[in-house]
Design goal:
Layout lengths: L25 H10 L7 H10 L12 H20 L11 E10 H7 L5 E5 L22 H30 L8 H16 L8 E9 H12 L4 H14 L4 H4 L6 H15 L13 E6 L3 H13 L5 H10 L2 H12 L16 E9 H7 L6 E4 L12 H5 L3 H21 L1 H4 L8 E9 H11 L6 H17 L20
């Protein structure tokens, strides 16, 4: 059946089975996709019916903001009747919101970026120089603690800026321009290397900017979580995010609110956790500790692979057969699946059948990078200075480590003062060089991805060390994985230059 020609402006083609939607408000897109579950007709036919019946008002008046508002108002009514009323919440996943979030702290950005089903781009500490006043204020702190916090941030930024010229000259001396490099490319590489070396001096209260793209359902969950935060800044950002998101998807986000469950969880857990038997604290300084792993990991992966490629065999019976097979036979199956894996090919999904739990101890700057891996479960402890700071060997070799340590030590004193009465806000005063502990639970498939990506020469030295240690620790309990995972174990001077 031919389609209404009026829909041509909203679809990329009129006659092919795959097409893109364009120029439609997000809530209207969600409405159209909702029809898939309740209508025999295709989307273009339904869009034509809506236009003909004036149910969405998309064709009223000239194209522009007025037209969009009419469409949104009618889509909102449609949602109230057919989507919200029927509890068809998954439709909200088809409405996508793009938010620019500016002048927020790194602390807040990490909370925002904890959303799995989101896409982010954040201001880089590698490519951008931060000025002396690039930190968020904390009006919720009483004087004189607030003044102490501001002074500490300014001292860190002054040191960060003062070390750059001398640091840059040393990098130029150690990394002369290669014949194939242009002057501009060399200068950019030197600057990136310098900023990598000095990023540890930036406080966690450093102001950053980020772009967030997420569907309305996921965004609503994130904003609700942020509204329940003990940090005043995060709650303020959450309210701003909600207000601005409502201009795009008002129906789908209107029920977003703080969660009493989340707000009260810490208080509820405290006495319950206190009743557990105490255990000694692990010694600081270990990059990776293995907490638990599947002793039958090879069997789990082999079962998943054979199930996929062995017709209609019963999985329980297949498992009994695998348990009776020599280990070498199982290894053959796994090695066959990995044969001819290209440089951009992930490990097969069957490797998700086995998991590990590890504790990582790494500087907060490195955690900031590794947090972007969302196909795992991270549990992070609050940021503090108890675990000490990481100062790179390169900075040590260049003669600037003592100056960096002095600045880090000054910041620690301020953190200690804040932490006595305001432990949550004290996190803002902690420089990125200080270590944090995080519990990771991840599949073997994600392990491949993390190690292979983060051990590359181009990676930052601090998280390269973590990736290499991940590989070593896991290979001790799963030696059959050692050669399968492509890890770069080399140590490079000024690797990213």
């Amino acid at each position: 059946m031919p389609h209404d020609p009026r829909i041509a402006r909203y679809v990329s083609n009129l006659d092919r089975p795959v097409f893109a939607l364009q120029g439609l408000p997000e809530e209207v897109v969600a409405v159209l996709f909702a029809y898939y579950s309740r209508s025999r007709d295709d989307l273009r036919t339904n869009l034509g019916k809506l236009l003909a019946g004036d149910e969405l008002g998309l064709d009223e008046g000239p194209s522009g903001p007025g037209t969009t508002r009419i469409a949104q108002d009618k889509a909102r009514a449609f949602h109230e009747k057919w989507v919200v009323g029927y509890g068809h919440g998954s439709v909200a996943e088809h409405a996508v919101v793009h938010l620019a979030i500016e002048d927020v702290s790194i602390i807040a950005s990490k909370i925002i970026e904890d959303l799995r089903l989101g896409s982010y781009t954040e201001k880089s500490t590698r490519y951008v120089v931060f000025d002396r006043d690039s930190y968020v204020d904390l009006p919720e702190l009483p004087e004189p603690l607030r003044a102490r916090y501001r002074t500490s941030c300014q001292r860190l930024f002054e040191g960060y800026l003062a070390l750059q010229p001398a640091d840059e000259q040393r990098v130029r001396d150690l990394c002369p321009r290669k014949p194939e490099q242009t002057e501009a490319a060399w200068n950019a590489a030197v600057r990136a290397q310098v900023l990598d070396l000095l990023r540890g001096l930036l406080p966690a209260g450093t102001r950053t900017n980020l772009g967030l793209t997420a569907n309305a359902r996921a965004l609503s969950m994130l904003i609700g979580k942020m509204m329940s935060s003990p940090l005043a800044e995060v709650r303020r950002i959450a309210n701003d995010m909600r207000d601005e998101s409502l201009t795009v998807a008002p129906t789908l986000l209107r029920h977003t609110a703080a969660s009493a469950h989340r707000t009260g969880m810490a208080e509820a857990l405290r006495p319950a956790v206190a009743k557990l038997s105490s255990v000694p604290r692990a010694e600081a300084g270990c990059a990776v500790r293995l907490v638990r792993f599947d002793t039958d990991a090879l069997e789990r992966v082999a079962l998943a692979l054979s199930y996929e490629h062995d017709g209609a065999s019963d999985p329980a019976a297949r498992l009994m057969v695998l348990r009776a097979e020599p280990r070498e036979r199982l290894l053959e199956v796994v090695q066959a699946a990995m044969r001819d894996r290209g440089p951009h090919d992930p490990a097969p999904r069957a490797f998700e059948a086995s998991h590990l739990t590890l504790e990582l101890e790494l500087d907060y700057g490195a955690y900031r990078d590794l947090q972007r891996h969302r196909m795992l479960t991270p549990i992070v402890r609050p940021l503090g200075c108890e675990l000490g700071a990481w100062v790179s060997e390169d900075l040590e070799a260049m003669g600037y480590a003592d100056r960096a340590r002095a600045l880090l030590g000054e910041a620690r004193v301020v953190w200690e003062e804040l932490a006595e009465q305001h432990p949550n806000e004290a996190q803002y005063a902690v420089p990125l060089a200080y270590r944090v502990q995080v519990l990771w639970t991840l599949s073997l498939r994600e392990l491949f991805h993390v190690v292979e990506l983060r051990s590359r020469r181009q990676g930052h030295a601090s998280y390269r060390r973590v990736a290499q240690e991940l590989h070593r620790v896991v290979a001790e309990v799963h030696p059959w994985l050692e050669k399968m995972i492509r890890v770069d174990t080399e140590s490079y001077r000024l690797a990213r230059g």
